[in-house]
Amino acid sequence: MNHLMARAVLRRLAGGRTSNSYVSSSSSSPFHEMRFGESAPLLRGRGLGFVGGEQWGRTMSTATRRKVGVAEKEREGRAATDEKKKTEEGGGTAVSSYWGISRPKITKEDGTVWPWNCFLPWETYQSNLSIDLRKHHVPKTFLDKVAFRTVKILRVPTDIMFKRRYGCRAMMLETVAAVPGMVGGMLLHLRSLRKFQQSGGWIKALLEEAENERMHLMTMVELVQPKWYERLLVLTVQGVFFNGFFVLYLLSPKLAHRIVGYLEEEAIHSYTEYLRDIDDGKIENVPAPAISIDYWRLPKDATLKDVITVIRADEAHHRDVNHFASDIHYEGKELREAPAPLGYH
Ligand SMILES: [Fe+2]
Ligand SMILES: [Fe+2]
After folding, report:
1. Full-model pTM
2. How far is the CA of 299 from the centre of ligand 2 (A)?
3. Which is more confident, 344 or 319?
């Protein structure tokens, strides 16, 4: 009872609205509704890296942020209760709250509601399909050879376990591939805090890589449903790999990035085999999952082959980024001394 009374008092303090108010995006404020394409100028501000014809701002200009701040203050005064309306507008799960937290209503170019909460239109991109897939870093130093051999050895159990079940193989490997970027980004983040230093953009670059790899996984999961023992394997492998890579990155980021570079080379090889099996008709070229069409800005009639092609291009980009990062360390420098390759994802 006290709890309910406290909530009622808070609602009144927050703006005098009744429980009929919404945290939804139905406000008349222009900042509550964004249309993919139409309202892009609203978000164009700092001119950060974009890829593809659709130029989306990832952040807002100072003036826009000020306006958004005013809009946010207006919105803070509203209570959130109407789950039905929010579900209709956002297509997602509505959570009752009096905190005034809500995502702006975002629509696609065709006016339909943007269906994803996990990524937004300005985070989508077109893969660079012209990237050289055959590039290889020839191992010369002792550490390079260790990295190369380690990856080749790791490939053996993977080949035995999955053989040519590339969907399953890709899904399982993506659960591992999304770890190094997060570990590296996290450690650079902590280093930046400890040393009062900028990171040169590398924190963001590595976290972007981790996010991109996770999106590969989210896509693969739409195509292949993991079995219970595969989920168990992921738990075990993640426990070992996260901790192992964490220690390795602390000891030798040079070796850690080189290993990831070679892992990405193997990923390119695996996805090339995957595409070959699709071309040969051994794997059905099913329609692409909706999440992949929006994330990579693929045509509506895109297929599995298109999805694997863009994922492979992403892997080639990760390969280059990680070999580059290793090379920076080989030159006796820190990553922050070389501008990070931001803006691809
Ligand atoms: Fe990946
Ligand atoms: Fe990758």
Report:
1. 0.75
2. 23
3. 319
